[in-house]
């Protein structure tokens, strides 16, 4: 049962590489929160590693911050101590991360800040708040400013220079003439494009040439079938003990007939190139459908398969 929970949560986190951020969809966020809270109590060390990986390697900032907040909340509710402070600190890598985490906590859990939350944010603030951070991240239009974060968590400065900086941040918070910061894009990791081992059956519609070539270039061995109208029929007719099937097309659903065309223990990936908004990836064990135009699509394919074998990427 524990393995199933880990696989399901990992699958959901990976799906954020190829879908909208979970905060855009209440049902999706609620499902994620429920899985994180269960896993934080049942598998705390593994969940801590997952959330750190989500932020540092996958660049899933909202996913990691929300997960860390729920990790802490769930462990407090269960009377479990330890790890929460470290998890909070581990997912905060950008100067605005403490601000967004506090916004999340205020909205979902209220203004009372548990000690592990204050201390974890404080640890991050000591790392992240620099002169450059003030110039780039202390945006005057935000309701919650860097000075507000200092007032809420009361971090202890690392030295006299940082103590002076904290005083200037607090003064700036209440200075109506303060010059606005100049924001820069947040930090994002470069996502890998791994090799796909084994034999891949790659079935494509008429408009997917470039994407198909990208996938094929990363396959150890690929059989490509192009231009068919009935992709389900093609998959049924061409499947011959392949290690995976990838269908790349516009508006192709992962319905029951297509799913049954492939043995249930063989991964079936459907990449939608329709250009319409895909709310989030529709994923279950060995069955994945998502937006194939996302930067992380190829990596997600590899991660989905590794996760089913509990081969974690950290």
TrEMBL record:
This is Uncharacterized protein. It comes from Lentzea waywayandensis.
């Amino acid at each position: 049962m524990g393995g199933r929970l880990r696989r399901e949560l990992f699958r959901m986190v990976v799906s954020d590489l190829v879908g909208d951020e979970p905060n855009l969809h209440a049902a999706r966020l609620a499902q994620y929160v429920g899985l994180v809270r269960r896993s934080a109590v049942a598998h705390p060390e593994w969940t801590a590693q997952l959330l750190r990986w989500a932020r540092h390697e996958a660049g899933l900032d909202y996913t990691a911050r929300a997960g860390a907040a729920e990790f802490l909340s769930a462990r407090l509710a269960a009377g479990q101590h330890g790890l929460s402070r470290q998890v909070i600190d581990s997912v905060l890598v950008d100067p605005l991360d403490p601000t967004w985490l506090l916004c999340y906590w205020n909205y979902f859990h209220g203004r009372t800040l548990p000690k592990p939350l204050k201390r974890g944010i404080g640890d991050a603030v000591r790392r992240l708040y620099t002169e450059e951070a003030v110039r780039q991240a202390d945006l005057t239009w935000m309701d919650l400013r860097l000075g507000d974060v200092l007032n809420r968590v009361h971090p202890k400065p690392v030295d006299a220079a940082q103590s002076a900086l904290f005083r200037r941040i607090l003064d700036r918070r209440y200075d109506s003439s303060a010059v606005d910061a100049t924001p820069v894009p947040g930090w994002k990791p470069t996502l890998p494009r791994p090799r796909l081992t084994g034999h891949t059956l790659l079935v494509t519609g008429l408009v997917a040439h470039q994407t198909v070539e990208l996938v094929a270039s990363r396959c150890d061995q690929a059989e490509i079938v192009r231009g068919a109208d009935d992709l389900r029929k093609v998959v049924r007719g061409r499947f011959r003990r392949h290690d995976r099937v990838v269908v790349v097309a516009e508006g192709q659903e992962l319905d029951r007939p297509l799913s049954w065309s492939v043995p249930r223990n063989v991964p079936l990936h459907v990449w939608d190139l329709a250009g319409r908004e895909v709310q989030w990836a529709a994923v279950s064990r060995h069955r994945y459908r998502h937006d194939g135009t996302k930067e992380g699509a190829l990596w997600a394919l590899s991660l989905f398969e590794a996760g089913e074998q509990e081969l974690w990427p950290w």
